[in-house]
Amino acid sequence: MNEVVHDTRDIINNVAEIIQCLPEEIKKPCTVTLAMCTHNPNRQWLQEALDSIRGLYNEVIIVDDSDIPVPEATIHFQKKIGLPDARNVAVNAATSEYIAFLDDDDIIVRESVAALRETIQTHHPDVCYFPLQDMREDGSYIAEGWGYTGVSLSKIVEENQIPYASWFKKTLWEKIGGYQYEIEDWDFWVRAVFSGAKFVGIPVVGLKHRRRESNSRTWRFLVNNATKIKTDIINRANKFIEGMYHQMPSIPSAADMGETQQLENPKVCFVVTATGKYISFINPLIESMKKWCRDFDFKVLVFTDSNETGCYEKIHTSFEPWPFSTLRRFFYYLSSFEKFSEFDYVFAIDADVLFVGSVGKEILGKTVAVLHPVFYNSHPDEFTYERRKMSSAYIGQGKKYYAGAFYGGEKSHFIEMLKNLVSLTEVDLKRGMVAVWHDESYLNRYFFDNPPEKTLEPSHCYSDKYPLPQFEKKILLLEKNREEMRQLPD
């Protein structure tokens, strides 16, 4: 999530008072290493860069791979190793908590360092960024650059919006694998965002960036190869994210639990989320179930923050603001998977529905989904899939669109489904994004990759607003004031 500190002066003026209130382990000042990578530098520009950093940092490391060694270098290579490797060498050698880079032809705005230190001391971000100022080769002012106003982490894959000199934690560098690509800082920031890193920005110019002819050539290269570069960076970030996730512990797989045979008297569990005002739907829903569910025994587990009681088992679940109240249903159900042990089948169902016709063994199967009534007669181009390629819910072209109001299957397969849905959702949350139709988008992605064994017609998810008279009404979607229902009760 992108957090921005709007008034740096307040931070500077009040920092002593703030630090006095902090625990002892936080009062200790954060340490910062200034790292510079140089290759055949312009001596005048290098000297200006060195003068700008003098006395400001806990440590200075200069990695040099010039043809003629730079006397000020901390580490020298006899042959060119390239900027990504040089930066990794510098960070690896650093002993501070935070790293700040500076090119050998740029200049640090000395007044900004105090503000940056106070910001990391107070907020402990993974990345602290700031705007830069462009200057000509002779050092004269051009214009305010970029890096603070309008920064959008959700759009970072479209363009590099974080200055290379932004401060970051060494532990972040270790976590995401350092610099790995020719477009080294852009690729690094994208992986940082995808990993869920905390970014904080300050409105204080921190760097004077020298615009050189070589910069212009680099810019033209970026523009001319933008599509390929973006694709490469996104693919690399996705592979990195996929490698981060591990199997959730202590949750049995379908193979561990064994297959469930079609039983004469199956036991069915319905799981429902009803936090906030949605609890008002539960008792009418259960009464309708009692009337129309005749071919199997069932029980209802209600995930709610309400103190109301009824003929159902209640699992306390804190109210979360929209859209997390619906998005995180997979997490709620998976965290209580042990509750499913006595059942043969488990189905997730929306609270705001009613059973209005006979519902029997026709719903039972290994994995079960319902065709969405709104899109039953629609062309696939009209399906409201998640179309952003960076989302884990992305579907380019599919054949069916499923409703999020009712799905499930055999107990073991339902748990496997939940594990996959949680992973898909977590990937996007760590990227700072949510799919267009929340849990329903991730459900469609799951069924796109794992087609359901049984697909039910819209009878089991019927909408009077979008009538399909050829189908019998069995489970009816209720109309409601969505905005009102998403608010906490008075």
- What is the CATH-assigned architecture of the largest domain? Alpha-Beta Complex
Largest sheet: 8 strands, mixed
Low-confidence stretches: 1-27, 244-261
Q: Report the mean per-residue pLDDT as an integer.
A: 82
Structural class: alpha/beta
End-to-end Cα distance, whole Å, is: 30 Å
CATH superfamily of the largest domain: Spore Coat Polysaccharide Biosynthesis Protein SpsA, Chain A
Number of strands: 22
CATH topology name of the largest domain: Spore Coat Polysaccharide Biosynthesis Protein SpsA, Chain A
Q: Number of folding domains? A: 2
The CATH class of the largest domain, by name, is Alpha Beta
Question: What secondary-structure arrangement, pairings included, does this model have?
Answer:
Elements: E1 2-4, H1 8-20, H2 24-27, E2 32-38, H3 43-53, E3 59-64, E4 75-76, H4 83-93, E5 98-103, E6 107-108, H5 110-123, E7 127-129, E8 132-135, E9 141-144, E10 167-169, H6 170-176, H7 184-194, E11 199-201, E12 207-210, H8 213-224, H9 226-244, H10 254-257, E13 267-273, H11 282-292, E14 297-304, E15 313-316, H12 324-327, H13 329-335, E16 345-349, E17 353-355, E18 367-371, E19 402-410, H14 411-430, H15 438-449, E20 454-456, E21 462-463, E22 475-477, H16 482-485
Parallel strand pairs: 1-11, 2-3, 2-5, 3-4, 7-11, 8-12, 13-14, 13-16, 14-15, 18-20, 21-22
Antiparallel strand pairs: 5-10, 6-12, 7-10, 8-9, 16-19, 17-22, 18-19
